[in-house]
Automatic annotation (TrEMBL), chains A, B, C, D:
The keyword Membrane does not apply. Residues 17-200 form the Class II aldolase/adducin N-terminal domain. GO terms for molecular function: aldehyde-lyase activity; L-ribulose-phosphate 4-epimerase activity; metal ion binding. Keywords: Metal-binding, Zinc. GO terms for cellular component: cytosol. This is L-ribulose-5-phosphate 4-epimerase. Transmembrane segments: none annotated. Pfam families: Aldolase_II. GO terms for biological process: pentose catabolic process. NCBIfam families: PRK06557.1. Belongs to the aldolase class II family. AraD/FucA subfamily. Its cofactor is Zn(2+). InterPro entries: Aldolase_class_II_sugar_metab (IPR050197), Aldolase_II/adducin_N (IPR001303), Aldolase_II/adducin_N_sf (IPR036409).
């Protein structure tokens, strides 16, 4: 029955449980409506990842409904949930895992304020220290790309490779975020909406004041290395 | 006692339960305040629909309080709930069911952002892919019409017949949405508020970038035929 | 012990329970923060009203903590809750009850959007049908008045006497609403925030389209006489 | 085991419980996302304060996880929670306690609207009576300062010493608030976001109307001395 050996099966079970729970954070943080949005997580030690099924209620997202895929985005037949279709964004997640080996989690939402910046193809300028902490500068815009081939995944990878930001605003579409694991990518999804909202509102009230680049650098460096109870290594 | 035969009675009971539950989605998605808003659903196989009573608390919306009407909007006497007045928008719902045979559900709200566009008699431009997916282009505006005759129902039907959108912004009033069943119409009500909000906010920040028409067409086609666990056929 | 006779004591107990519960609606509808806002209700058949204590947590608003006052705003000594100070807006509520005999409930909040219009001393124009239904036209602005004498109460009474609206935006302060009973005044507080928000957002997106006066009149007339399960008579 | 004597240990236990609970108010009032924000409270009768650990989930904030520090911001070793790192803003809190002996609580958040004013380095003008009540005039802006030395604490103290406001908007960063105890500082954090939001929205709709200075003074005086069930003395 099991095809991956006991150690990998344990890892798969853990990622299934994490991914199911983390979708709850999208709801709690009001990043999604209806069945929109998706979280995926790489299975440590295997060329596999776990992702949400397509168009399913958030109330039905139990671990056994999550779908196991290989890095080409193909569903692993005979595993729990494999009778369902995976998220329609599965190809984009798979592309990221194939091309960014340090990425352990990917999140996509249409969260309101981040998507509003995306509808203008405009990067979010770095004018608050929380943004310097979390993203190390502006949150960049990715190309316009539609579902159906690798263009979304390629747009994410080309924009974020070598960039401090773990978030990209795909033009006319919405944010994709990456992280060292799924929880870290969810955090980035929460934070990109938070800074998108704050900077949007700040600018509707008048001219923004820039943060000096040296301060941005210093804040990013400290936050990545000192904040929290354990080091939260930057994805390079 | 029963006037419709056992098969129709089962169908009525199912629609009553659905309609009662679906009003909860209006609350959860913050589309309504106080007793505003209403959902109705056609009874499959009969010239009947079920709708919410007028001006009743959302906490009191049990299945037996829902009201059964014929397609002229007349309450079916002697059925549960028939001692109450149906929603004051019942005539508009009835008009839609009479003139759009493929419509199985109708929703009306005064959700904030959709109503804000309606107060300007302005269609929502299609600048985000979620909107192309769901509505296939702009969300149109319907005529100004007040309660008291068929003018609201006629405005909805004239605007949406032959249109990809399942949502219409009735001028100075608010959104009405249709769907293949009540749940599909509720989804459209949730999504029209979501895109109304995102596009409003996007435009307050600067010029919007349009999506090429060919991409809008391709997104709409894919979403209607591929997304989700079962085909979500476009109306008509 | 009881000073008002059994019939009035029953009425007092009912109003205490209503007022305690209705404060929950202010919280559920996000009209208040911390200990702000207050609801009062006239005791039918007596020159008395019940109001919230000053600066007390919303979680502590049990019926026995509500405070019974005469129409001069004086606490009735020896009754439950009379060891506490009543709301600092008690004098304004009392003034309204003294001068508007048909008013059975008064509500005051600093709800965000209504207060934003008040900070500009600007009436809310009637551009959505829900507003014509509920308020019969624009929501008016009252004078700037500060706590310490009868000027707030007088401003409310002078603005709302003979006016269709049950809500007034006191300049630089916030909304006060009246109703045939406390629940009706709470509904007006919910609705004035809802229309304040929708019309604010509508106008930030471009020019508003007016509703013809004849349609406003017709909507107001219908809503006051037809909507709901029982007639919701206009004040006076 | 205990190093402070029974009376101080009781005081520490009470402050631990308060601080753990008060973090819940930050969540309930939507002032924080993810693990952001922090509350601290001075231990009465000792040169100690209690603060939140760094980067820990709001769901994990039990009293025994709170961290006890001296007024230099050093963790008191061997006490509960001392195996964790305290909030990365601990040095700023400590600086305030050292230099403002009447301050019993400090709160820091990145609440949306207050941070939006901070991103423009703009004080919030006093145009609503709730703001005159609570802050006695405009909410001031503090200098741009980054974490790593005493510059944040010094900016808070220099801005708020001798000022009526218990809130300061640190430039490009967010609000810090002080109070006679932790609960009072949390109230100030709730109220500064509320007035930041209301005044922001008011101004996007058109010109604001100022409150006469004499009225501001009179409102502030009354609120500090009369409102509520017990005097809420102004700091210093």
């Amino acid at each position: 029955m099991s095809t991956f050996g006991p150690q990998i099966e344990v890892a798969i079970a853990r990622v299934r449980a994490d991914i199911a729970l983390l979708h709850g954070e999208l709801v709690r943080n009001a990043l999604v409506v209806w069945t929109g949005g998706n979280v995926s997580g790489r299975v440590p030690g295997a060329d596999l990842f776990v992702i949400k099924p397509s168009g399913v209620d958030y109330a039905d997202l139990a671990p056994e409904n999550m779908i196991l895929c290989d890095l080409d985005g193909q569903v692993i037949l005979g595993t729990p949930g494999s009778d369902r279709s995976p998220s329609s964004d599965t190809a984009a997640h798979a592309y990221v895992y194939r091309h960014m080996p340090d990425v352990g989690g990917v999140v996509h939402t249409h969260s309101t304020y981040a998507t509003a910046w995306a509808a203008r193809s405009e990067a979010i300028p770095c004018v608050i220290t929380a943004m310097a902490d979390e993203f190390g500068g502006p949150v960049p815009v990715g190309p316009f790309a539609i579902i159906g081939d690798d263009s979304i995944g390629r747009g994410i990878v080309e924009t974020l490779t070598g960039h401090r930001s773990r978030a990209v605003l795909m033009a006319n579409h919405g944010p994709f975020t990456i992280g060292k694991d799924a929880r870290d990518a969810v955090k980035a999804a929460v934070m990109v909406e938070d800074v998108a909202r704050t900077v949007h509102l700040a600018r509707t009230g008048g001219p923004l004041v820039a943060i000096p680049q040296s301060a941005v650098d210093s804040l990013f460096d400290r936050y990545q290395n000192v904040y929290g109870q354990a080091p939260q290594g930057e994805l390079q």
